[in-house]
Specification:
alpha+beta, five-stranded mixed sheet, globular
């Protein structure tokens, strides 16, 4: 079963890869590693999911935002692999940035939205190292941003 098949079973699809917002590229391949730039949370229509965790949204809503970041990461991976999912061997590391109030402490629960989707789609190859970091603000007022490192064949 392909990643697209699993996505369809889950009622999901990958968006078009987002263009960079500034002076950087969406991904860089270095040897067998693919480094994908941070992807900000977006709604189904492509609009930015804005807000602060602990003020404008709770951890479950933040997890959904992180899940949208994971879908965008995978869209970039698909582009880097020219559509050949057989080249993706595993997720190595995700780093999640959560815009939050100073008293919000559930950053790991938010970033779980991205982590759990990777495992649901890739099984053991989706298990990864991870960091979840709280920040005061993210680009365009986004609630969550996630970057990733992937191992390619």
């Amino acid at each position: 079963m392909t990643i697209e098949d699993r996505l369809r079973e889950m009622g999901l699809s990958l968006p078009e890869p987002a263009a960079p917002l500034a002076a950087y590229v969406p991904f860089v391949r270095a040897g067998d590693l693919l480094h994908v730039s941070g992807q900000i949370a977006r709604d189904a229509g492509g609009g930015v999911l804005r807000g602060l965790l602990g003020k404008d949204m709770d951890a479950p809503a933040g997890a959904e935002a992180a899940r949208s970041c994971a879908l965008q990461l995978l869209a970039q991976v698909r582009a880097a692999c020219e559509g050949d999912w057989g080249r993706l061997l595993r997720v190595v590391k995700l780093t999640g940035f959560v815009a939050s109030t100073p008293d919000f402490v559930d950053h790991p629960a938010v970033v779980n939205g991205a982590s759990e989707l990777m495992v649901a789609l890739l099984g053991d190859a989706g298990r990864h190292a991870r960091s979840a970091v709280g920040v005061a603000a993210l680009p365009l007022g986004a609630a969550v941003e996630v970057e990733g490192v992937f191992l390619l064949r």
